[in-house]
Write a structure and sequence with these properties.
The structure holds two protein chains of two kinds. By secondary structure, chain A is an alpha+beta fold. Chain A has helices at 2-28, 66-101; strands spanning 33-39, 42-51, 54-61. The longest helix of chain A is centred in the last third of the chain and has 36 residues, at 66-101. The mean pLDDT of chain A is 86. By secondary structure, chain B is of the alpha+beta class. The longest helix of chain B has 20 residues, at 168-187. Chain B is globular, with a radius of gyration of 18 Å. Classes of the chains: A alpha+beta, B alpha+beta. The interface between A and B is medium-sized, with 19 and 12 residues.
Chain lengths: 106, 234
């Protein structure tokens, strides 16, 4: 039983460590979506993102390069993936916590 | 092993193959136990493994002919880059898989990472890896060619290192995996190959293996290792 508990404890520690790593990386990644606004027939691009309860729009210019758009899309996909990983790790942490301590939650 | 873990491992191998990384690295660790089924081609051989660690040894000097940023190659799969310990060995971590790169430690023991600029990583130097790199086999799985240590080298290496493990689970897993591979080799009449590889080892290591096997009462294996030397047939 001691061996199994040791394995589960190690897995719990790894999951917690990895979760905090994903959270740290997420904070450094550019988020938001590129929004196109039409003002007096002219197109303007803004990066829209949430900051607390507010949605902020940051002006990016009249044109946005394909490279910037691709980078933003890649970052968005990755953020989604990392968020899924965090959810998966939360479930794992919750489960392992219950198995090891009976009642510990995230 | 869960299917998603295997699928992720295979995806990593496919990407390494596509970028011509796989032909210059040796897959070591518990995944070998699984992939040996393509070497033994035996239905009785159990491929069960319980690991998330996927370790690659990079033979020194590295022979990669182009620069590949390993993390960029794998990040869309959900890997994050971690720097292990205070020395900064690179580890690519994922809830289902952890990839590490190792090199053979030579000379005096030290804990400095070995930079592999071609892959934009720092590898971890460890003892006894030369022996695995010098005795390899190639298997083909779904079109991917993987270099593995010869099963005899794998088992003998584990018989050296299990005693050095601080983690009791890893200690037990080392013994169990090594015994499974070793028995399969015996089942396939490869006692000569085992003995041939054993004889190529440094005397100090041979003594350590014998001492370690005595400590777990593996008299059958000790008997095989002590038979008169016959050159390997392969």
């Amino acid at each position: 039983m001691g061996l199994i508990k040791g394995v589960l404890r190690e897995e719990l520690e790894n999951s917690r460590r990895l979760k905090s790593r994903y959270e740290k990386v997420l904070k450094t990644m550019p988020g938001g979506s590129m929004i196109e606004k039409q003002i007096k027939g002219q197109k303007y691009y803004y990066l829209a993102f949430r900051e607390g309860k507010k949605v902020r729009f940051v002006y990016k210019g009249k044109k946005v390069s394909e490279h910037d758009l691709a980078e933003l899309k890649q970052s968005k996909d990755l953020r989604g993936k990392y968020k899924r990983m965090i959810r998966q790790l939360n479930n794992r942490i919750k489960y392992l916590g219950k198995v090891l301590h009976g009642k510990e939650d995230v | 092993m869960e299917k998603k873990t295997f699928n992720l491992c295979f995806e990593v191998l496919k990407r390494f193959e596509k970028e011509k990384i796989l032909k210059h690295v040796v897959l070591v660790g518990s995944w070998c136990v699984y992939f040996y089924k393509y070497y033994f081609e035996s239905e009785e051989y159990s491929t069960y493994i319980r690991t998330k660690d996927m370790d690659f040894v990079i033979p020194i000097p590295p022979k990669f002919n182009k620069e590949i940023h390993i993390f960029d190659l794998l990040k869309d799969l959900g890997f994050v880059e971690e720097y292990k310990g205070s020395k900064g060995y690179v580890k690519l971590d994922h809830p289902d898989l952890a990839i590490e790169f190792l090199v053979s430690e030579r000379g005096r023991a030290h804990d400095k990472p070995y930079p592999i600029p071609q892959l934009a990583i720092n590898a971890q130097p460890l003892r006894f890896l030369d022996f695995l790199v010098d005795n390899t086999i190639k298997i083909k799985f779904e079109g991917v060619k993987i270099i593995l240590p010869h099963p005899a080298a794998y088992a003998l290496h584990k018989f050296i290192i299990f005693k050095r493990r601080k983690n009791i689970d890893k200690h037990d897993r080392d013994i169990e995996g090594a015994l499974r591979v070793f028995r399969e080799l015996v089942h396939h009449n490869q006692k000569n190959e085992i003995k041939g590889i054993f004889n190529k080892m440094h005397t100090k290591w041979q003594k350590e293996i014998i001492r370690n096997l005595k400590s777990i009462n593996e008299t059958e294996i000790l008997g095989i290792l002590k038979i008169n030397s016959v050159p390997p047939s392969k």
